[in-house]
Amino acid sequence: MIQLIRYAAITLSLLALPAWAADLLPPPVNGITFDEWAAGNARLADNQSLASVLGTLEVSEVKWNQANEAFTKVLGEGDPGSHLFQRYGKVFANPAAGRYAATADQPRVLGKLATFEDYASLQAHLEVAAEAGLDAVDVLKEHGLSVYEFSQEARPWVEKMARAAGGDGGFERMTLIRERYDAQYRQRYGLTARAAQ
User: Fold this and answer.
1) Is residue 94 part of a domain?
2) Span 49-75, pLDDT tens digits
3) Which of 19, 54, 64, 109 has its CA 20 to 30 A from that of 170?
């Protein structure tokens, strides 16, 4: 699951796929399409139950695990800039795909990272906690977020920082805010301060 979270994060700001790219998707595994697998992972990342995912797809856990292994392998062997990664990110961001299109349990974004301060605090916490050897999912839980919510709520801030770094302004202020939280979490976990860059 953590590897799949990384795949989703890689694709946060990628553009939509061209129509011809659908031909590049791997074939279904046990009747589960690549899009349904990505949508299922988004639901699992949103703390929906595996039983719910399996029920919608009408497959056993064994069949889901086989599909999960096959599609994870295909992604793991691919290039993070490929159309397959873009497709995974697109479906993960909007998981109303395949048999999930008609379900009422679509994941929702609730605005938990409403300010840049919210985002900077969480991002610093994730990075410092990783350095301290802690689990990212536990950090997200502490901030009241599922993996899916984080993937959705972080996107506008990632895009805003990219625009600011490109000259739209505010990047230095954002960096200072981020560094302030970094120092707080380093103190919390007993890590040495980052060297000035």
Assistant:
1) yes
2) 999 999 999 999 999 999 999 999 999
3) 109
